[in-house]
Amino acid sequence: MINRSHTPALMLASVSIAAASVSAGPRDVKFASFDIENGVVEMTNFGTETEDLSGWRFCSNNSSVVLRYSGASGFNGVSLAPGESLFVHLNNDAPASPDAIDYSSLGGSLAPVERTAYSFAIYFPAANGNVSFGNGNLIADFIQFSFNGFDNTTANIRTDEAVNGGVWSGLTDWIPVTNFSASIDLIDTDAINNDSSDFRVNEPCLVDLAAPFGALNFFDVAAYIGLFNANDPAADLAAPFGLINFFDISEFIAQFNAGCP
Predict the structure, then answer these.
(1) H or E stretch including 19?
(2) What is the CB-side half-sphere exposure of residue 68 using CA atoms within 13 A?
(3) Is 109 exposed, middle or buried (0-12, 13-18, 19+ CB in 10 A)?
(4) Of the four, 12, 57, 128, 159, which is 20 to 30 A from 152 by CA?
């Protein structure tokens, strides 16, 4: 259960301890998963000590909206015990659960999640209790993904701080996603200086369209033909997206022949 404490002395003590070291402590809190489709970020404490998140703040950027920050007091009184996760619902649809919160409850603003290019960071406060967003040594964790891993010089506005602070590998290192990527999972939970290979991108099986699900056969082909003839968006598998044509048929055949994970 996520602990909310409103004892100022305990908050200040935890902030001071967190700011004293960036090799452990606050950097034990990592983005364990990023649900792109549903807009849910999972923060997990992989350390052995409880981490007080008071004063922690998000920074988000996409290909056109940058430098959006959560509120300075949004995480006050929130702590993560070892092995505990907190699910932040960016679309403000959190269920009634002690381990889930709406982003809106944190205050501030958010750059909308997009697959074109997106970067997301969580900062912890310095010894004075404030967050300096230009100081990469205060970044607890960072992630950036883009369509096919293409570099984006707008969404990476905070990536240089992440690189300088030692939590990300390079300015042009993006986790490659597609228009259909469902979520991203952290697979190397020990690394601090992450790169795109430390994550797994989860792709749905877009060609498994009919029962029996889990097996590709003629029924899936027939279902796709029906979707294609109906000009259904589910048949739009390839660029140019928004136009259903021969390229979508070709992509269906390629994915069908490759099989599903």
Answers:
(1) helix 8-20
(2) 23
(3) middle
(4) 57
- Give the model confidence (pLDDT) of 53-105 as tens digits: 999 999 999 999 999 999 999 999 999 999 999 999 999 999 999 999 999 99
Q: What is the rounded average pLDDT of the residues 26-47? A: 97
Residue ranges matching CATH 2.60.40.1260 in the chain: 3-202
Who wins on pLDDT, 233 or 71?
71
- The mean pLDDT value for 161-178 works out to 97
Residue 188 CA to residue 199 CA, distance in Å, equals: 7
CA distance 132 to 4: 24
* Peptide linkage before 26 cis (omega within 30 of 0): no
Using an 8 Å Cβ cutoff, are 146 and 155 in contact?
yes
Distance from C-alpha of 116 to C-alpha of 63, rounded to nearest angstrom? 7
